[in-house]
Amino acid sequence: MWPVSALCAVLEVARSGFYAWRKRAPSRRRVCQQQLLEEMQAIRAEKHKGSYGSPRMQRELKSRGHAVSKNTVARLMREHGLRARTARKFRHTTDSNHGFAVAKNVLDRRFTARRPNEKWVSDITYVWTDEGWLYLAAVEDLYSRKVVGWSLGERLTSELVSEALRMAIGRQLPTVELVAHSDRGSQYASGSYQRLLASQGITCSMSRRGNCWDNAPMESFFATLKKELVHQERYATRQAARQSLFEYIEVFYNRVRRHSALGYVSPETFEEAA
């Protein structure tokens, strides 16, 4: 440690000025930014919000009464090491080497919808537990990006995707023309799944072989799920994973999480405001 007198001499600062600076109350700007920082840390401590980057953080702060710019939020996060989590590389579960008929790509990357139940996208992902794999099939409505149907199972079967579709149908009760898009995996091309679509008058659409961009919104949801939840947990049992996934999808993702494609409101809020 250097004595104060020596430091003041080097910096050409009067000792009286140094002590006056130490006793001076923090500026209003500094107090406001400290309060913002504490609020940001509290938000990141809330379940599943630790991955919020500056755009979602700024919207969350605004909803809590803080008038703050995106640049200020980004700077504070950068200066204090509040980094958003990044997604790991995505691994596909699709097996398109089968003898079933494959549908055309009716959706054709048109990922916006004018109303609910106009366009649904579906896919399957996997979750590791100490008891083995647990597979998740999900259905997302492109109008509100809400997960309208999902199911969990220990095996990759056609029944897994059919259960998710049945949940979506039972929850949404679609009454107008609907397109359901998926990859061309054997589960989606199977006779049982195709019969379920036909029985409800739903048009089937499938991605081109090996083209993940044809189902980008569903891939995005799974990447978010892995980043914000699955990669932060270790599940001792499949039941623990089931409970965790239920809470994330139904309590957080659909009702709370701010979605960039919806103007940073949640799917439920977007539907209610429409």
Description:
43% of the residues lie in helices and 14% in strands. The chain is elongated, with a radius of gyration of 25 Å. It has 11 helices and 5 strands; from the N terminus they run αααααβββαβααβααα. It has a 5-stranded mixed β-sheet with strand order 3-2-1-4-5, with helices on both faces. With 274 residues, the chain is α/β, with parallel strands linked by helices. It has helices spanning 4-11, 15-23, 28-45, 54-63, 70-79, 158-172, 186-189, 191-199, 216-228, 238-253, 267-273, and strands at 119-129, 132-141, 146-153, 179-182, 203-206. The protein has 2 domains: 4-79, no CATH class; 119-273, Nucleotidyltransferase, domain 5, CATH 3.30.420. A hairpin with a 2-residue loop joins β1 and β2 (132-141). The model has no long low-confidence stretch (mean pLDDT 88).
Largest sheet: 5 strands, mixed
Beta strands, count:
5
Assign the structural class, choosing from mainly alpha, mainly beta, alpha/beta, alpha+beta, or little secondary structure. alpha/beta
What fold name goes in the CATH topology slot of the largest domain?
Answer: Nucleotidyltransferase, domain 5
